C-alpha cells in the first residue's frame, strides 16, 4: 500500500521525516502546474519547520510557472537576515520577471 500524506486538514507528517521540504516543493509545484493560480496565500504555523516548508512551497509554485524549463530556489539565508532567490533556465527575461515578482511578494509580506 502506498503512503498517504493527506489527512482531513491537508498534508500530514512529522516535519523533516515524512513532511520534508522536498515533498512540500513537489506538492506545490504539482498544484501550480495543475491549477495555474494567479495568486496564492501561503500560511504557516509557529513551529520551527514553518519557514522552511513555506519557502519550499513558494519555490515549487514559482517553478511551476517555468513549465519544466528551469528551476527556482527560494530560501532563507543561513548567515544574513534575508531571503535568497536563485533561478536558472533558458529564458533570461522570463527568469528576471519571475524573480522580480517573487522578490516583490516577499518584500510585501515583510512590511
TrEMBL record:
Domain Alpha-D-phosphohexomutase alpha/beta/alpha: 4-67
InterPro entries the UniProt entry points to: A-D-PHexomutase_a/b/a-I, A-D-PHexomutase_a/b/a-I/II/III, A-D-PHexomutase_C_sf
Biological-process GO terms, alphabetical: carbohydrate metabolic process
Domain of life: Bacteria
GO molecular function, one term: intramolecular phosphotransferase activity
Coiled-coil features, chain-numbered ranges: none
Similarity comment: family membership: Belongs to the phosphohexose mutase family.
Protein name: Phosphoglucosamine mutase
